[in-house]
């Protein structure tokens, strides 16, 4: 797929991956009519939805807003509040948006933090797991939602989340029995 195809796919309101988090991103970009001067707000939205800004995501934003990738990378690296990659080997993003929150996201986050022995926004001491939160992943219909290494899982609870983490990690996180 060419850059132009990617851009037009973005502007058509979809992403080839089918990742629901792109809907949130699309809604923000559309609200700003895909104007390049909305870059910082779009990057904020992307980070809230994805937890961090990986290179492919930055390129997607650059194409969608018709902004040179160099500028997008420049802005993303200039501001300390943007994270370009998770520090941990694995990532767990717990959605704390309204739909997820009222369906038990706080208990899920608490269980994940306890299992990892760290707080949201940080990485476990052994560097295995970064725990992050998002405001809405665009998967409210299957709330509460959690993203494990980039894959969105719906209808989660503390037990299913910890089970998935156990499978994800090659060890038993501290605190998980
Ligand atoms: S509030 Fe969690 S997916 Fe929307």
Kindly report how far apart the N and C termini lie.
46 Å
Query: Could you spell the SSE succession in H and E letters?
Result: HHHHHEHHEEEEH
The unique ligands bound to this protein are: FE2/S2 (inorganic) cluster
Please, how many domains? 2
Backbone CA Rg = 16 Å
What do the pLDDT scores average to? Answer: 85
Which blocks of ≥5 consecutive residues have pLDDT under 50?
1-12
User: In total, how many beta strands?
Assistant: 5
Strand content range? 5-15%
CATH superfamily label of the largest domain: Glutaredoxin
The CATH architecture of the largest domain is 3-Layer(aba) Sandwich
Content-based structural category: alpha+beta
- CATH topology label of the largest domain: Glutaredoxin
Can you identify the CATH class of the largest domain?
Answer: Alpha Beta
Dominant shape: globular
User: Order of strands in the sheet with the most strands?
Assistant: 2-3-1-4-5
* Helix percentage range: 40-55%
Main sheet record: 5 strands, mixed
Number of helical elements: 8
What is shown here, in short?
This protein is an alpha+beta fold. It has helices spanning 3-11, 21-31, 39-50, 55-65, 69-78, 98-101, 105-116, 158-168, and strands at 90-95, 122-123, 129-134, 146-148, 151-153.
């Amino acid at each position: 797929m060419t850059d132009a195809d990617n851009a037009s796919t973005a502007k058509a309101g979809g992403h080839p991956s089918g990742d629901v988090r792109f809907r949130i991103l699309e809604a923000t970009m559309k609200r700003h009519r895909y104007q390049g001067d909305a870059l910082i707000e779009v990057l904020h939205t992307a980070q809230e939805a994805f937890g961090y800004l990986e290179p492919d995501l930055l390129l997607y934003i650059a194409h969608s807003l018709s902004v040179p990738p160099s500028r997008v990378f420049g802005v993303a690296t200039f501001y300390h509040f943007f994270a370009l990659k998770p520090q941990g080997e694995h990532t767990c993003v717990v959605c704390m948006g309204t739909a997820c929150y009222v369906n038990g996201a706080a208990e899920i986050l608490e269980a994940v933090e306890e299992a990892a022995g760290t707080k949201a926004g940080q990485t476990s001491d052994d560097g295995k797991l970064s725990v992050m939160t998002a405001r809405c992943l665009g998967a409210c219909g299957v709330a509460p939602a959690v993203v494990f290494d980039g894959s969105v899982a719906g209808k989660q609870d503390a037990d299913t989340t910890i089970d998935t983490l156990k499978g994800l990690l090659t060890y038993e996180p501290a605190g998980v029995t």
